[in-house]
Every structure is written in structure tokens, then in C-alpha cells.
Amino acid sequence: MIRGSKKRKVTVVQSGSRPGRIAVILLAAILLSAISCACHGKPGKHEKRQAQSQPLRVRDWNRFPAIVERSTRAEVIALGDIHGGYERLVNLLSGRGLIRWDQQSPVGYSWAGGNRMLVCTGDVIDKGDRSLDVIDLMMALEAQAPASGGEVVITLGNHEAEFLADPENGKAREFRSELQSRGIAPETLPEGQKPYGEWMMNRPFAAKADDWFFAHGGNTSGKTVAELAEGFRRAVDQSDWGASLLIGDDSLLEAQKWWEEDGKSDALLERYLAALGARHIVFGHDPGAFHSKGEIGQEKDGRIFLIDVGMSPAVDYSKGALLLINVVNNEVVATSLDADGRKKELWRGESSR
Hints:
By secondary structure, the protein is of the alpha/beta class. The protein contains 10 helices and 14 strands. It has helices at residues 18-40, 45-52, 86-95, 131-144, 158-165, 173-181, 196-201, 225-237, 244-247, 265-276, and strands at residues 67-70, 76-79, 99-101, 109-111, 117-120, 151-154, 206-209, 212-214, 280-283, 297-299, 304-306, 321-328, 331-338, 343-350. The longest helix has 23 residues, at 18-40.
């Protein structure tokens, strides 16, 4: 006998008895659960969130396409990460004549851009403290612009995708606070809560205007527009906002300095652009990638343009800047315009329009 041990009375339950059958059923359930966990592995934080959340939602892909594609001879204007910088956004858009003060408008401003196309490459939320005011304004402009032949396109950013995957993620502190201050539970947005959740869930993955491709992080991984759109539709139809296609390290929304892969940036860019049927990729997300922080820059003879200038007061690299793309005498001219009205020609080349 082992010193210190005590004899225990063991009761054997016969399998034919009612308690025995219950014990067998419970044991089988435990074993099946263990086997299931072993087969599927531990869920990631986004998978765990989805397992606890809403059923799949159906998006109207005709009304809200995966990638917006347009052909236009009007001015195309690109805007990078806003991150809750409402007052700077209003100043920037007013300075270019895209909006005007309107007492009759619920948001105080109306579209004044005529037939121009404004493309924002996402990340309108987080960091700054007026993300909801930014969304309210952008929603209003989206609705108003078509009346004069214009268009406002706001693509998905990694901050929007990450919030939809997990509203409790660490980057969303300010946005959660804003929602709660308006009596909105953050966790209701991935369930399609109107208007903000529904609006965020209907953002396009990217936009293409003639031979200019716009996306938040810019890394297409050599995929065609059709391939990117198909993958995005599949993820959204499954409510998989945490999919690697969206917020993986090498994704279209998250990747940084992707054009430097293997030190063969020229060949890589040519391959990526050929797959897209484009000559230029415009993206935000990484304000320190090249050129001075706070300024719009271009590299590789206009193949890539970086438009995140850190305009949010929470970042404060600048008060904002726009990329203006115009056709002048059969040439395309790309110009930066900052919040103080200073212009700088960045690139000029033959037009394909």
C-alpha cells in the first residue's frame, strides 16, 4: 500500500440501468466534442467572433459591386486615409469645390463636384474622434453626386474590415466610443445595423477608372480584377471579414511595401499592372512607404501613387491632400493639391483614354 493513501468505495453502474445509459451518452458526447476540436484546431479570434455572431447576410452585388469599374474623361480625385478627421476632410473637399455649405442638407453640406469622380481608398474610421461624422458626410455625397453626373466611391480599408471581423479589436477604441456615445452597440454593426453597419458591409474591395486602379493597400498579388472580385464576393457572402484575402499580411488591404518583393519591383509591377489591365495603382495605408510623410508621392514612373498623408488630427502628418487626375491635350496629368491650396505636378504621360 502507498503510504498516505486511503481506500475508496467504488460504485459500478451497470450499463443496462438508466443511470448507466446516461453516463454512456454523456461520455460519448464529451469524446465527440474532443475529436471535433482536435480535427478543426483552435479557432482564431475572427473565427471565434463569427461563430458567436450573426447568420450569413445576402449582399446585392448588382447594386454594390465587388469592384467598381468606370470609364470617364472627367477629373478623377483620390483621397487617402481620413481616420475620423472630419473638419480636415470638409476643408479639403471645400477647397477643391467638391462640396458646398448647404443649410438644407441634414449633414450641412452638398455635392458641388459636378461630373467629377471622387475615390477614397478606405480607413475612414478609427484614430480620430469624428468617424461617424465622416461616414454621415460620405453617405450623403454618395447619394447626391449622381444627380449631376458625378460619383463618390469609398472602398474598404483594413480598419473597416477588421472592425467587421471583430468590433473589440484594439484599433477600434475611438470608434467604439463614438458608437456608444450615440447609443449604438458596436457589436450590432457586423449584423448589418443601419445605417453604419450596412454601409460598411457594402463597401467595394477596390475601384478602377480607365487604367487607374485604387485600393487601400494596393497589393493585388498579381490577380486580375475578376479574380479579386470573385474572392471578395466569396468572403463577404460567408461573412468572413477576417479572411486572409481581406486582412492577411499580404492582402490587398494590409500589405506594406509589397512592390519591393525579391528586389524585382519593376518586373513585379509590370506583371501586376498587366493582370489588372491598368497602368497605375493608387493606394493609402502606409504614409511612410516613400517620399516625405504628409505628402502624396509617386514611384516607378507613375506606376504607383501613395495617397495616405496622415491627415487625421490623431496622426497629424498633414492637414490633408488630394490626388487630381486629369486629361489635358491627350496627356494624363497627376497633381497633388494640399489643404493650403498648394499644387505640385507629380507625373505626366500619354493618355490611353
